[in-house]
Specification:
Elements lengths: L31 H5 L8 E2 L2 E2 L1 E2 L10 H13 L10 H21 L7 E4 L2 H11 L9 E5 L8 H10 L2 E5 L9 H7 L6 E7 L11 H10 L3 E5 L11 H4 L3 E5 L10 E5 L1 H4 L12 E5 L2 E4 L13 H17 L1 H19 L5 E3 L11 E7 L5 E2 L1 H10 L2 E2 L1 E3 L4 H6 L5 E5 L6 H21 L1
Parallel strand pairs: 3-16, 5-6, 5-7, 7-8, 8-9
Antiparallel strand pairs: 1-2, 4-10, 9-10, 11-12, 13-14, 14-15, 14-18, 17-18
Helix pairs in contact: 2-10, 3-10, 4-5, 11-14
Length: 444
């Protein structure tokens, strides 16, 4: 019976023609209309209007190649991984571990064993909040920021309660940047700091945070640095070695992949020293009634049947992004965001939250909207009226309530862009917002 590896070496993975080991290598000319043809959902109409999807920070749309890869796996290669000693089992394992190696290459990992598959970024961050805090106690400090998604706040609150450590945080400036000057004055990162966990890109403000500089400062005090890169990996070329961080989490469904798959990257020597997060099959070396020993990373953290086809779909998404080239994706994101900022700020009553220029800024623009009389229009009303005109945005606090509290508002409307967004869609958003202001202005 044929044997197959539990982990595939990064260098052995087949990638699309012309795609190198760097996320920016092998780029093809960027043609947004050609790209949109790969996404059948953009053929949809909302009434008599074309769908304008501006909620990609929530979840991205999926190209046909990702959907077809998932379909092919279920129809022709479906089996459990590692356990089934037959042809289908070997094929499923090769596809699953091949996806792991693709992801490793995509973010610049040194080896595929540094990639742990989870069900989402939230699970990846919770894994660290439970396993990387086992030696914390009273007097130790965990540092996050007001800018974080709830997934990078609540796990650390729970960890602080469990260990007796103190939770501290970066504040934000009025223009939506981390207040690093105040943090330095207050000695936010110091000899008591054991963990720093920071978002790379804000899901509300689009702010790109200086995680490399923060990592260098934290490491000077011997702290562990964790990055929530859920909004960064889809938009930017990410090289974990260049960032100089210890762990990095992201999710598949925001980067053209399926839901139900997340990624935790960690330096192998650190993963090797973490205890298991969940117990069950495949994360063990041996089990006796008197005790168990555990598998090395990454399988130590992947108890039970993993998200097999979701990982395979994520591998297909990585192929697609690699063909485009992440530097090209980032350039398009910058161009479309710059166009949106220019257009939106011409709408009376619209106030952009966060950076209003393109310096260190990603493709999410959140804003409030008011009538000519100065009455605020609730984001849910904005979203509903925009939806009636075919424009999909998000309204609420975007799982970042403390950030909205810092700005003194309850909620906001968010338009978020991606590699398939066009200027025509931004114009449709602006037209729908102008209509909304006029509609509520007349009603009141």
């Amino acid at each position: 019976m044929a044997e197959y590896p539990a982990v595939i070496d990064v260098a052995e993975v087949d990638t699309p023609a012309g795609v190198g080991t760097s996320p920016t290598a092998g780029e093809i000319p960027y043609d947004v209309d050609h790209i949109r043809a790969d996404f059948p959902i953009f053929e949809r109409m909302v009434g008599d209007r074309p769908l304008v999807y501006l909620d990609s920070a929530n979840t991205s749309q999926k190209p046909r190649s990702v959907v077809e890869t998932i379909e092919d796996h279920y129809l022709h290669h479906n089996a459990n991984v590692a356990r089934a000693m037959h042809m289908l089992g070997a094929e499923a394992t090769e596809a699953f571990e091949g996806a792991r190696a693709k992801v490793a290459r995509f973010v610049g990992a040194q080896r595929s064993e540094e990639i742990v598959f989870t069900k989402n970024a939230s699970e990846a961050l919770n894994l660290l909040a439970y396993t990387a805090t086992r030696e914390l106690g009273p007097g130790d400090e965990i540092v996050i920021s007001v800018m974080e998604h709830h997934s990078n706040i609540v796990p650390w609150q729970l960890a602080a309660e469990r260990t007796g450590a103190t939770l501290r945080w970066f504040d934000v400036t009025s223009d939506g940047r981390l207040d690093v000057e105040r943090a330095a004055e207050d000695g936010l990162i110091n000899e008591r700091t054991k963990i720093v966990s920071i978002a790379y890109v804000s899901n509300v403000l689009g702010t790109v945070n200086p995680v490399d500089a923060i990592a260098a400062q934290a490491h000077a005090y011997g702290a562990t640095v964790i990055v929530d890169a859920s909004q960064a990996v889809p938009q930017l070329p990410v090289d974990v070695a260049a960032l100089g961080v210890d762990y990095l989490a992201f999710t598949g469904h925001k980067m053209l992949g399926p839901t139900g798959i997340g990624v935790l990257w960690g330096r192998y020597e650190l993963l090797e020293n973490l205890p298991p997060f969940l117990g069950g099959g495949e994360m063990i070396e041996t089990v006796k009634m008197t005790g168990s020993t555990f598998a090395p990373p990454p399988h130590r953290f992947e108890a039970g049947t993993p998200p097999i086809v979701q990982a395979v779909g994520l591998g297909a998404a990585v192929d697609y992004l690699s063909e485009l080239g992440m530097s090209a994706v980032a350039r398009h994101e910058q161009e479309i965001t710059g166009y949106a900022l220019d257009v939106l700020q011409q709408i009376p009553g619209l106030a952009v939250l966060g950076p209003r220029e393109l310096v260190s800024r990603g493709g999410a623009v959140s804003f409030t909207l008011a009538t000519p009389a100065g009455e605020q229009i609730h984001p849910h009303d904005v979203g509903q009226l925009l939806d009636s005109r075919g424009v999909a945005v998000r309204g609420g606090h975007h799982c970042a309530k403390p950030l909205h509290d810092a700005f003194g508002i309850q909620s906001s409307t968010r338009a978020s862009f991606y590699l398939y967004t066009t200027t025509t869609e931004i114009d449709a958003l602006a037209e729908a917002l102008t209509y909304t202001v006029d509609f509520f202005g007349r009603r009141r």
